[in-house]
Amino acid sequence: MDDSQLLRYARHLMLDEIGIEGQQKIMSSRVLVVGVGGLGSPAAAYLAAAGVGQLVLVDDDQVELSNLQRQILHTTGRIGQSKVESARQALHDLNPEPLIECHARRLDGPGLLELAKDADVVLDCTDNFITRHHINRACVALKKPLVSGAAIRFDGQVAVYDLRHDDATCYACLFDPSDNLAPDNCATLGVFAPLVGIIGSMQAAEALKLLVGMPAGLDGRLLQFDARTMQWHAMQVHKNPQCQVCGLAQA
Questions:
Q1: InterPro entries under this entry (predicted)?
Q2: Which tens digits make up the pLDDT trace of 224-249?
Q3: Distance (Å, rounded) from C-alpha 26 to C-alpha 48?
Q4: What are 125-170's pLDDT values in tens digits?
Q5: Among 9, 178, 207, 230, whose CB has the most other CB atoms within 10 angstroms?
Q6: 3-state secondary structure the chain
């Protein structure tokens, strides 16, 4: 690290759990962030600020006025611009060091496999079940750690599925892909603005810990948050042997 980097990341270098070695791991890492809206904005911002070497951003949407209540990477002046390009500008202003790769399209299974294969960690910051299950399948197939977040109305949740381990739970163990679930996007149900910041920041925290080799506090746990009461509830999750994606039948 040069003098500028030593100063920029000084507060990380002071932490015994990170230090110079951990910061170098962060700076040499590649992270895939799918969705740069409410969750992806704070998640990507903290990852870029922390010095993640390569950030791959995926989102097929454009910036709209209704996004700006909560999607903090985007601005009024960038309405109509693709979200990934808007995010690139904001992240470059925050920290010009990370290499930012943008994909302004919705990706299916093969597309996600191609992008996830070189990622050290994958963040699911999307707002629909179909895409979440595509992401999960890619991470299971490639044995990539997945940090999943969701936020709707006043309710949020975050979990880590460290699929590098054979006994790891996957997203489909908890949320069966065959269930006919109603759309959960905030365009139809609404979302409390700070909630996405809380959950997205936690996703960044878990991702950074994975990158430096610290235990992910949410590996094997689903953490739920109620912003009405400011209460957290954690539940242990276990691998489902009958899971359609990672179960014994798929082995």
A1: ThiF/MoeB/HesA (IPR045886), ThiF_NAD_FAD-bd (IPR000594), Ubiquitin-activating_enz (IPR035985)
A2: 999 999 999 999 999 999 999 998 65
A3: 10
A4: 999 899 999 999 999 999 999 999 999 999 999 999 999 998 899 9
A5: 207
A6: CCHHHHHHCHHHHCCCCCHHHHHHHHHCCEEEEECCCCCHHHHHHHHHHHCCCEEEEECCCECCHHHHHCCCCCCHHHCCCEHHHHHHHHHHHHCCCCEEEEECCCCCHHHHHHHHCCCCEEEECCCCHHHHHHHHHHHHHHCCEEEEEEEEECEEEEEEEECCCCCCCCHHHHCCCCCCCCCCCHHHHCECHHHHHHHHHHHHHHHHHHHHCCCCCCECEEEEEECCCCEEEEEECCCCCCCCCCCHHHC
Which residue carries 């100063």 as its tokens? Answer: 7
* CB contact at 8 A, 32 and 120: no
| Lookup: tokens for 77 | 């002046």
What gap in Å lies between CA 55 and CA 167, rounded to an integer? Answer: 28
Which residues participate in catalysis according to the annotation? 186
Distance CA 135, CA 148 (A): 10
What's the whole-model pTM score?
0.95
Q: How far apart are CA 7 and CA 143, in angstroms?
A: 35
- Whose tokens are 């601005």? That residue is 75
